[in-house]
Structure formats: structure tokens, C-alpha cells
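Re: the request from the purification team.
They wanted to know what the chain is likely to look like in 3D before they choose a buffer screen. I agreed to run a prediction and write the result into the notebook, where they can find it.
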Amino acid sequence: MQKNNGVEFKSLLTKEEYEKLIDLFKGNKTDSQTNHYFDTSRFSLKALSASLRVRERESLQLTLKRKKGYSINENTVDITKEELSEIIASGKVSNEEIAHELNNLIGNQKLINFLSLCTYRMYMPYKSGVLFLDKSEYLGVTDYEIEFAASSYHTGKRDFIELINQVEIQYKKSDKKIRRAFNAYKKLH
């Protein structure tokens, strides 16, 4: 079992701040991914502290997460583009194990792809941790974020504050990407 005791520090960025940082750190690794989020029309999974998503990178992974007490049970399987298309078209999951768990949670309710969130990321080692620069697109919204992951709270906080002060970035509180995207979804519906 993997354990992660890291801490994260992050701030929203303006487009100008993001472009300044991308230029400053150009040449570092980049990648992108799209997360397709599913629930019922009544958001029954969310009401049960569960979520279903397909992460699209070089391959596709279907993940069902269920919160149980203080832990999160996660079931992930690889799927094909055809299987993703089938979930979108039919509102059903063909993988037996995940379909069985979903049936226990939502019965025969259909799933809808209510949100897709695409993130373009640049990342690099930086001082005591790893620095991430993210551009996220969802529901016609584009937002930008800087995130710094470190193993020590105090050292990580110091390094993060030094960096944003050095490049003259105004700290702006940043919710999780899915929360920002879900809030945008609620505004539209």
C-alpha cells in the first residue's frame, strides 16, 4: 500500500501570471489529461460520497471512488475509447465489478457525463518539492493555478511563499479543480 504524507500549497493565477511563469520555466516537462465525470441526473453518487470518472491520457481509466469513514475506497480499471463512448451513449458501465458496485449505489439510474475537465500541466523539481503550473478548461471556463508539493509543511510553505514573492504573484485561494468546475456547472444549471 502506498502512503503519501506530502503537503500541497497552491494559488490561482491570472492568465498574465501563468504566462510569466510558463516563460520563466520553459523547457520543463508537460503533459495533459482530461477527466470525464459521471453521475445520475439527481447526483445520487455525490449524495452518497461517491464519484465516477474516466481519466483520459495515453490510455483510459475508469475509477469509482467511495468514501467510507476516514478512508476512500478506489476501484480503477482500464477501458477502451469504445467503452467510454458506450458509457456516454447508454448511461451504463460494462465492467462487471464496477457495474455491480454502481448498482448497489444507484440501482438502474442512468449515468450522465455532466462535466469534462482538461488540464495542461508543466512540472519540475523546485527546491524542497515539485512545482506544477496548470491551465484547466471546463464548461467554457479557463483557469490557471500554481501548486507546490513538498514533504515538509514548514519547508514547503517557506519555499512556496519565497517563489510567489520572488515572481510577484498575488496569492489567491484555490479550491480543488473539481470543486471549481462543479461550481461552474451549478451556475449553468
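For the purification team: The CA atoms of residues 13 and 144 lie 5 Å apart.
Please add any questions underneath this entry.
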